[in-house]
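Internal QA ticket QA-208
Title: Verify multi-chain structure generation after dependency bump
Assignee: T.L.

Test input:
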Amino acid sequence: MRYVRAALARLAGVFAGHRADDDLRDELQSHLEMETAENIRRGMHPDEARRRALLGSGGLTQAVEAIRDQRGLPWVEGIAADIRYAVRALSHSRAFSVVVLVTLALGIGANTAIFSVVRGVLLKPLPHRDGDRLIYLRQSADGDERANLTFSVPEVREFRAGVPSLGGIAEYSSWFGTLQGDNVAVRMDMGLVTGNFFEVMGLAPVLGRVTEPSDDGIGVPPVMVLTHEFWIRRFGGDSAVVGKQVRLDGNSVTVIGVLQPAPFFPDRVDALLNMVVSPHHTSAFMVQNRSHRMTEMIARLAPGATMAQARSEVAAVYGRMLREHTEAYDAGSHPRVAVIPFKEALGERARPTLWLLMGAAAFVLIISAANVANLTLMRGVRREHELVVRAALGAGVSRLRRLLLVENLVLTLLGAVLGVVIAIGGVRLLTSFVARTSARASEIRLDGMVLGFTLALSVALALLLSLVASLPKEGTFASMSAGARRITGNLSKHRLLRALVVAQIAVSVVLLAGAGLLTRTMIQLSQVDTGLRTEEVLTLPVPLLNPTRISPEADAASKQLYERMRSEIRALPGVIEVGVGSTMPLRTSQVALDVSAEGKALAVGEATPRADLRTAGPEYFRAAGITLLTGREFEITDQSGAAKVVIINQALVNRFFPGEDPIGKRIAWTGEVLKFTPFSGDWRTIVGVVGNTQDGGLDAEPQPVVFMPFAQEFAIGGGLVIRADSNVAALAGAATRIVRRIAPTIPIENVLTVAQIKDQSVAPRRLNAALVSAFGLLAVIIAAVGIAGVLAFSVSARTTELGIRMSLGADSGMVQRMILREGGVLLAMGLVLGVAGAVFAGRVIRGLLFGVAPHDPTTLIGVAAMMAAIGIGACWIPARRAARIDPAITMRG
Amino acid sequence: MAEKLDVQQGTLALMILKTLEVLGPLHGYGVCRRIEETSKHRLTLNYGTLYPALLKLEQEGFVTAAWGQSENNRRAKYYTLTAAGRRQLAREAREWHRTADLIAAFLAPRREAP
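Actual output:
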């Protein structure tokens, strides 16, 4: 109680101010007078009486100081004074403060923005209960590295029985359908899940309930759990939707609940349903066949189990499967199962880019910090006299250090505030960018944690900056001589300045080189030949045939509709050709199957060739602009019932018939999976070869493709390829209207021109390149300011020396060259270090490059030349100033 | 004049409180004189020691201060012991006696049986 009271009284004392001081002076005065009067009374002479009294007081000023310290909180007052002083000092050297503030704000802003994205997407705990114990299993094989084979139900069952360290294994199967509302049809992306899915995932409903094991199997009513996002977007967050029936592909499905917001993997989904909604998923086909893989596995570590246990148990079970079921695994392509923390799997597509940006931002911060350190050092040298005077007047080193720290804190904290403002804009931009590669983009926030990071960063910077400044030693009155004019600067401090400049140049070169490599990557990518002869092509996917209800009747009906759409769009003005096919060009096919060529046996251990399965009408290749290399295109005569023919692409020719004429040879679909498809394994005769197209993206190796005549097979997938003489994008509206009129219940999405599809491949790289280039540019500007500043400082510190040199016969050209040489040495060292660093950095970001080597000489030389030019430019200004020194004036001082 | 002593940390507050208890409301000069006299001038107090101590006691609520007229019509600030100050004085005096007894017993020249 007593301490609280005393503390409050002292706190109040901080603000007591002048009135309390007057009061105090009165009190001391009265004491003095009483003592003097007493002394006089004892017989002293009045002067002596007063002298004695003063002597006894022990110094009035000291007393006042001691009492003031007791009255308030001296350190608070000291810091308040320091802050006042810092603000005053900084507003005096305005140019210094502005440069430092802008530099810091940009550095801190970039780091804050990117850190908030990294945290939201990669670091933050998942919203799932004990999300760190969630595991994703991925089955993959050689070939396309990105391929995810997924699992079959028998495989899942074996893992469930044989891996005790996985406490629960849920099945998840990607699915899509059409939600029919009143006169609108919406495509829905869904996950078909087992009843234990939500328990394993640790997700709870915000409304209604989630599915349970009792929703598994056949003969149960189909139910749907909406994701939070879809519920808001489609139903406006209306809680009345729970319990309602919706029409999904002709089925009636009950909405039983709304899920808490959560990211999904591998796909973003609108709803999760029980398996019964798809007859296929509950069929014996699906449930019993080991090769029928369309299930993702998500598991939860059992209590007490470790990741390592799970890995070894999964490997053991999988090894047994490979031995016991050789027919279901292609040993030649080395199948394997990876056990990955779910959080990592969620972040894996965004991770490389984010670390790239984080690295670039960190570099920018390093450069800005170096610049601020430089400016502080230079200012410190100019202020040396002031500090020495302060020390001589009794300020201890710790007091001076505190003063500097407060100044630096004022700077960095102001920088942080501006930085956060910049970051708010940056986060918005980055979020829309990251949303393409991460399901967690909605979790990105500039929250307390991020602001804490920013605060910690600025305080750390301020501490660092306070340490580089050197202070006069305590009680060194001798250094009062520092008040005398300096002939040259302090060498040790200059060395630190120079090292910082070299570091700035080196880091700038690294950033610029990264920017150069990424820009070249983007250019290389946009110049990749797509395999289509023209960009005036519009793709219009129209999935008429419901994959769960394939029948000859439905197929025939849908083919008639396609023909009507084709001929009506063909009649639109400007249209040159319209083709129909299962899959749009430059898009991956939903179906890839094992394929074999007649008379070509596989070597032992050789991976079974796979090819994309596509169908195409006679006009498809002409409409898409795909080059026919040999043979013929499909004809009207390639009807169902006619001889089975195929057209293959160059990639498949290279695989099967290198150096041979493939026309007339026969190939057939094969493999375990074939029996789950509506396609036959008959021999088909090759009638034509077409060029490769970049279906997997511009940076992917073209995959082998087999085209079958649209008329001879079921119309799976389905869509129209439209070629126009010019401005094909303008046709999108008219073409979509025709399709809508003919097939009103089919959702039309992704109507894109070839140029747009291409851009989807290039856009992320463009943003990479743009962001890193922006950082690089920023770095160069800051570094240029750094070089110019340090040289200018060096010139001003050496004015007297230069004056002496000139009066001894050096001409202005020599002086100019001397200063340029001084800058040139720093520049050269920075360039050498920077190029070495750039080669290393190029290796680190190799995965993000395309069509350019990590040590690409053109880029490195270009970047070095650019940096050299900027550096020399920055040296020029102070060198010119040095040359204009008038020896007469400087010598006279 | 006897050897001068520094005022020991913590004991000055006790002396001030005791002085105020004995003499009633008093100004700083009076407190100073009283302490010096009581100590037979072995202690001298300068302003920088006395006034911060008085201020501290005021902040802790053991004394109150108010301007008043001195016996020979001078304006002076008078310090008065509060009830809390009285309790504090009793408490500190008790503790001081205990400590003094302990130290005295400790320093007494006495040989213990082996």
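Spot checks passed. Chain B touches chain A at residues 27-29, 32-33, 44, 46-49, 51-52, 55-56, 58-61, 70, 72, 74-77, 84 (CB under 8 Å).
Status: verified.
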